Amino acid sequence: MRWSSGCWGVLSLLLLLAGTAAFKINRGPSVNHLEITERAILDVTVQTCRTMAEQEGRDFVPPPRPLTASGVIRACDAAESSKSFLRAIKVIQTNNKRVDISRLFNPAFHFDDETFEEGRAIITDGLRIIKNSNKLGNFEAAREKLGEITHPLQVCYYLFTIFNA
């Protein structure tokens, strides 16, 4: 199966809909934004490949856990797209990480100072931008924005898990 830029754009959008992991506090090893982002991308990719295989009447054998990019590429029979897949992961991760650098003192990107409405607006406005970028075929911009908005989304989820533990 050949994966086009459009597939990766759609996959990026699905990433937002699938949820993400949270940081762990005092419950074993902690994970960072880059690891959370990669895990979410790999999970959504496996879900997407499974769905596509079912729709095409093919069997799908999921890769072993813990998921790796190479394992997902093999399971999805997408060796010819491996470079673009790995690049897409890096673009999303890099833009996620940049939030801690370029928006370090912007409370809304970290849900600091009770900026919940502003943080939510960053996520929902970003989702709107991603959808529009995908419609226009600007998948690189969609991936960049996805990386940016997954950061506050991860922080929000992390805070939710702490206060509901």
Structure description:
- This protein is mainly alpha-helical and 165 residues long.
- The chain has one domain.
- The chain has six helices and no strands.
- Helix 4 (82-102) packs across helix 6 (139-163) and helix 5 (116-135) runs antiparallel to helix 6.
- The radius of gyration is 16 Å and the shape is globular.
- The N and C termini lie far apart (42 Å).
- The model is unreliable at 19-27 (pLDDT under 50).
Structural class comes to: mainly alpha
Write down the secondary-structure element order: HHHHHH
Number of strands: 0
Biggest sheet character:
none
Shape category: globular
Q: Proportion of β residues?
A: under 5%
Number of helices: 6
Using only C-alpha atoms, the radius of gyration works out to: 16 Å
Compute the average pLDDT. Answer: 84
Distance between the termini: 42 Å
- Helix share bin: 55-70%
Number of domains: 1
Pick out the low-confidence regions: 19-27
Keywords: Signal
Domain VWA7 N-terminal: 67-157
Pfam family, one: VWA7_N
Protein name: VWA7 N-terminal domain-containing protein
